[in-house]
Amino acid sequence: MKHDAIVNQPVIEADRFVLRPLRRSDAGLIDHYASDRVLARMTVAIPHPIPPGATDAFITRALSDARVADVWAIDGQKDGAEELMGVISLDRVDHGKSEIGYWVAPPYWNTGVASAAVRCLINANPLKSVTMYASVFQDNPASARVLTNSGFQYIGDAENFSVARNAAVPTWTYSLKLD
Predict the structure, then answer these.
(1) Number of domains the chain is built from
(2) Which domain does 59 fall in, by range?
(3) Does residue 160 surpass a pLDDT of 80?
């Protein structure tokens, strides 16, 4: 049996959950939740339907020493919830700058998990970012509220391609200056 790779990124404690590096054992729950059409359509990179091997490839990239993004599972076991309530990441976009991305499993929508995970990652600031960026599709105002409630400031409109929608989708872009 092959053991999970040890990834050089911190485990970050929060009140309701732990942000921890992904594990190969997360594949089943990632597949289960990311297969939700509504969830996939609110992301840039999740295809719908998810093709065979896509989740394994995602986990392999997240565990790679050459990765450009650190990816954490939002693990709720410490509070009696599921092992994987969602995923949150920081993508290195430039020196001192990172882009935050996240999705939360449908059973945890509107429960504060996304807001708590974003604030937790901001407070930990594991990449020592000076500025964090984020963008959300304009038809996802709940994610926009997560960002603005976490201190992000709107900086403009743009477009991002959504794999699940097979289309360019209007986005709102945000930034957060960190001290």
Answers:
(1) 1
(2) 12-177
(3) yes
